[in-house]
């Protein structure tokens, strides 16, 4: 089947990781199944021993779960989309906890919580878009006329204590999961990023995220819509000096536009 989406994705280690000569702790995956777009982005928790492995595990499991669900139960109503996302959440949480416990027993010397990670999932089949997010990932949609909206916004920074972000496989992740279904007949673009980019791509009203940055996303979506987009463009942009001076965190961004 011909692909129905144009995609650009990039992920680079933050400055601290690069200077230490280690890889980043983000992971992502992009799949298209029968015209349904699956985007999964994860950000391993800083300071956790196996955060990178946790992010990769979350992405792999979420992708497996979603591919199976999309093939088994195509959704055509808001209720069906909500049920699909609930099933994905339950299966992902259960499988991640089981895998984390098994790895901890097999390897010894660490706890399942050492694999802690955020995870952000987007499932799109226009006019429907579903979002499932644990932690502080960001999801932006663009509609006709270039209008932008935050489907999953970064949390308000005011008064957030250290360690406040919800993470797999903790019990708190269940209660703090964000689940949203939107019907967008005029959808023209999707973007998902980790929190390493929110200060560059999201405008704030004080400490509160208010809207996606129109200028930044105008330029980014133009890259995807180029006649023959270079697949390395986004990675080179994220590695650039300008971005590096503005954020020292790992940074991952996935852009998609329907063809």
Automatic annotation (TrEMBL):
UniProt domain PPM-type phosphatase: residue ranges: 14-207
Secretion signal span: none
Pfam families in the record: PP2C_2
Protein name: Protein phosphatase 2C domain-containing protein
InterPro entries on file: PPM-type-like_dom_sf (IPR036457), PPM-type_phosphatase-like_dom (IPR001932)
Gene3D superfamilies hit by this protein: PPM-type phosphatase domain (3.60.40.10)
């Amino acid at each position: 089947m011909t692909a129905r989406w144009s995609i650009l994705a990039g992920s680079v280690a933050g400055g601290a990781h690069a200077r230490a000569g280690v890889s980043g702790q983000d992971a992502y995956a992009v799949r298209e199944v029968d015209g349904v777009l699956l985007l999964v982005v994860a950000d391993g928790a800083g300071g956790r021993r196996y955060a990178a492995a946790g992010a990769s595990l979350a992405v792999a499991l979420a992708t497996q779960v979603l591919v199976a669900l999309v093939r088994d139960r195509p959704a055509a109503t808001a209720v069906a989309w909500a049920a699909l996302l609930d099933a994905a959440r339950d299966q992902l949480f259960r499988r991640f906890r089981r895998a984390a416990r098994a790895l901890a027993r097999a390897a010894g010397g660490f706890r399942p919580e050492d694999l802690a990670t955020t995870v952000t999932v987007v499932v799109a089949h226009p006019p429907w878009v579903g979002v499932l997010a644990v932690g502080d990932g960001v999801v932006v949609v663009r509609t006709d006329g270039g209008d932008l909206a935050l489907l999953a916004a970064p949390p308000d920074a005011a008064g957030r204590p250290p360690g406040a972000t919800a993470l797999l496989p903790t019990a708190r992740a269940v209660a703090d999961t964000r689940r949203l279904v939107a019907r967008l007949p005029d959808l023209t673009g999707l973007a998902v990023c980790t929190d390493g980019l929110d200060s560059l791509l999201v405008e704030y009203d004080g400490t509160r995220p208010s809207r996606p940055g129109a200028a930044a996303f105008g330029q980014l979506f133009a890259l995807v819509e180029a006649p023959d987009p270079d697949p390395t463009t986004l990675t080179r942009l994220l590695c650039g000096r300008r971005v590096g001076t503005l954020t020292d965190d790992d940074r991952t961004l996935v852009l998609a536009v329907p063809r």
